[in-house]
Amino acid sequence: MGNLKHTGAALLALTGLLPAGDVWARQNIMIGELSIGYDFQDRNYKQGSTSVNSDSENTRNLFASPRVRLSSRDVSDLLEFTYAPTFTYDDIDSSHFVGHDLGLLAEKNINRNWLVRATDSYFKGEDPVADNERRGAAIIPGGVEPVTSIGAGPPADAPRELSDIDGRQRYWRNDFGLSTDYTYAQDSVVGVGYNFGVLRYDDNGVANNESDYDRHEGIGRLSYRFNAQWQAETEVSYVKGIYDEPSSSVLPSSSALNVANEDLEEYHGRIRANYSWRPHDVYFGEYSYAETVYEDESLNNSTIHEFTLGWNHDFSPRLRMTLSGGPSLVTFEEGDDETGYNAYAGLIYTFQQATLSASTSYGYEYDNFDGLQSGLSKTWRSELGYSYRFTPELEASFTAGYERSDYEQPGGITTAFDSDRLNYTRETYDAGLTVGYGFLRYYTLAASYRYADNSEPGDNYDEHRVLLTLTAAHEIFRW
């Protein structure tokens, strides 16, 4: 029987159905998980809030979520898949809801230098905080993450995170990406990509800023290493956002305010030069361009120009730092231009059993696809993270953040309820603590607490959230 199996594989290789060198290289893994838990959230709106939400928004959910993870890896390709339904029971109003979370990753090396990659992420639920955490997680835990500069920020083709400012609302979204990269020389890559995102709220019949959309994005990138010291990279992208117009039923009958067409286009460009002065020091200069063009001529188009000089320094293999900054210019189709600056400072310190990260940044940015159509802002953001592993089974992590955004030219005005949001400031504080304990090889018990405080016109609140989860995970098959 064994000889027959080997002979069959050899015949497949000879007939070209299976590459000869890959006959025995494929590895397949199936992992099964089951999570049960309790999710408590208490949001209290402060005096003076005019939010469409209730004065006090509480959640007490019991949930169970089975998950399957599949991985099939070969020397030239990779396929990963995960799916988890979540069965939720709301203890406050005795209702139930079934959510879904699906992830897919497929990679194929056409040859040693040419890579094709496809991804898909689908989520149906009501909690954007959980959604944002899941979409950034690895499908198969324990994989090696690529090392990037700590000040680089998310890649241009990363899915856009949704804001949780308006609390829990049921929605579904899907983000699909297709890209290809060709390495034509050492540290020199040319690539193109396409992303398609969809956001749909189940109940969009309230007068707020939220809106369903389709998002199309095309990306092109090119990098080239001139020598051991100099390397350059550039990237351009085009985005088309198509928004659903709210029905007339959400508009006040007495409102004389017209609903704006919120469809828009974004243009992005970036060029950067890196100079490796020494093995532990890299200096860089960058120019970035971002423009938003609204289809409705009554909305003011704008463009962001940023010039940045920076320094990456490795004090040791455990301690890395990035500093950067420079002038910024914002031009408006109508109105005076605005000058400012951009800045970033960050470090990562890895101990034997702990990791410390800290960063602060300031600059202009667009956020047209966060579920709020926040538009153009000047944003100051600071973050702190610390994790410590007490034993191989016990680990704790702490996070804290502060963000202040000044919005001067937000996106469209959906209803009369938005007329006081032309110029406003949003200020957010948050802190979180998570403790996880693994036991009996397959089980993990985790407890998390998160505090958030949000201040903006008509929507001031503080929020407490507790999440308790027991997870059992087991490798079912490996072949």
Task: Please characterize this protein's 3D structure.
This protein has helices spanning 2-14, 128-135, and strands at 27-45, 56-73, 77-90, 95-109, 114-125, 171-185, 188-201, 213-225, 230-243, 264-278, 281-294, 302-316, 319-332, 338-350, 354-367, 375-389, 394-409, 424-439, 443-455, 461-478. It has 479 residues and is mostly beta strands. It has a single domain (25-478), classed as Beta Barrel (Maltoporin, Chain A). The protein has a 20-stranded antiparallel β-barrel. β19 and β20 form a beta hairpin. The radius of gyration is 25 Å and the shape is globular. The protein starts with a helix and ends with a strand.
Search tags:
479 residues; mainly beta; Maltoporin, Chain A; 20-stranded antiparallel barrel; 2 helices; disordered N terminus
How is this structure best summarized?
This protein is mostly beta strands. It has one domain (25-478): Maltoporin, Chain A (Beta Barrel), CATH 2.40.170.
Helix and strand topology:
Elements: H1 2-14, E1 27-45, E2 56-73, E3 77-90, E4 95-109, E5 114-125, H2 128-135, E6 171-185, E7 188-201, E8 213-225, E9 230-243, E10 264-278, E11 281-294, E12 302-316, E13 319-332, E14 338-350, E15 354-367, E16 375-389, E17 394-409, E18 424-439, E19 443-455, E20 461-478
Antiparallel strand pairs: 1-2, 1-20, 2-3, 3-4, 4-5, 5-6, 6-7, 7-8, 8-9, 9-10, 10-11, 11-12, 12-13, 13-14, 14-15, 15-16, 16-17, 17-18, 18-19, 19-20
